[in-house]
Amino acid sequence: MTTAGLLGSDVPLAEAYDLALVDLDGVAYRGHLPIEHASDSLVAARGRGLRLVFVTNNASREPEEVAGQLTGLDIPTAPDEVMTAAQACGALLRTRLEPGARVLVVGGAGLLTAVRAAGFEVVSSADDAPVAVAQGFAPDLAWADLAEAAYAVAAGAWHVASNRDLSLPTARGYAPGNGALVGAVMAATGVEPSSAGKPSPTMYRLAVERAGGARALVVGDRLDTDLAGARSGGYPGLHVLTGVSSARDDVLAEPGLRPHYVGADLRALLEPHPLPALGADGWWECAGRAARVADGRLEVDRQGTAGIDVVRAACAAVWAAADAGEPVAAADVPELTA
Length: 338
What we know:
Strand content: 15-25%
Largest sheet: 6 strands, parallel
Order of helices and strands: HEEEHEHEHEHEEHEEEHEHEHEHEEEEEH
GO molecular function: phosphatase activity
Structural class: alpha/beta
Protein name: HAD superfamily hydrolase (TIGR01450 family)/HAD superfamily hydrolase (TIGR01549 family)
Domain GCN5-related N-acetyltransferase-like: 286-332
Helix content: 25-40%
GO cellular component, one term: cytoplasm
Pfam families: GNAT_like, Hydrolase_6, Hydrolase_like
Number of strands: 19
């Protein structure tokens, strides 16, 4: 299940798996806007028996707020169907700290609630001698907040980041994410933080434990977080092309970032996924589409670079070449669209 290639499924993924761990930004919505086909596809997948847990690297908001937003976008969701990086951060803190330990929280309400729920005393200043700093994103964080974190970390506090996403998708584009703010504290202290969010598989394990799924599928839009976490945690991962990472990124992905399935959007949950097969003359064939690597360059069939099945064939061709020690240069991979 965790080999470095694509997987195939003769039945829709919503029937092949019993639990989907679904990312939010770039998958279920974009900023505060809906993504086309997301609501209908998730509701239909539930109707086929697929349970959903929304797993997000956003640590600033409470699960109740996230559930309310999803419900408002016609994706009915209960708070216990949301797993945030803040909750994962609290779980990570428990692995080293005793209950009641002082933790400086630099982040939003969701992180404050999660750290308190994990049994720790929240403080607001490095002068309170915290043994750890929990850092997460909040849009109103200021220089003074980052400075307090730096003072505490420099004094020996354990630095735990809810996640290290460098960018954050918004309705206006991509803004600096928590990773950029964590980088400021790192630059001031020289200390490498621990991270609770994706690509660490901590949240996925917590979500599976909560929901009790036997066959869990990760669904995300970012290779470096969602799909890397799936690979590292041993979960199959579906990459949907509605967010950060592109089809071309899939083709060029290193083994630890590769998805197991690729789909244009969340309708991919309702579809079978044909598996590319090696045919004549080095062509990888998938549902009538084909791609191959010849002389170090990716070639696709005469139908062109559009279509999810040519994306799958191209992934198989380039990954096979790379794994054989013949990587394809990025300049030799054209843009592909689903």
